[in-house]
Amino acid sequence: MLATLKQSADPQEQQQISDYCQLRFNSGLNTPLTPVQMNDVIQQLFSRRLAKGEHAAPPHSENPQPLFHPLIAMLPPSLQSTISKPLVLIALVLVLLVLFVWVF
């Protein structure tokens, strides 16, 4: 089962998997597992990894800045700060309006 994982299990996770299989399925290290049992073990491993990752992950930002529009989030960070200023945004809208009127 460990060979099917994309990210290999560390020794602590291997011990946890072994203990879980022994308690839940009463199986040893060399006992073959059914597909349902394997899914259960993999689900248990991933939920433990997720719980461990949530405790270790620091917050992304101390002071998140609100965006004027969700599409601004798709731009690179250097353009986000420029476009988020109201004067630049008004100038950009005016330029687009002039181009639209000129074309049509």
Automatic annotation (TrEMBL):
Keyword set includes Membrane: yes
Name of protein: Flagella biosynthesis regulator
Membrane-spanning parts: 86-103
Record's keyword terms, sorted: Membrane, Transmembrane, Transmembrane helix
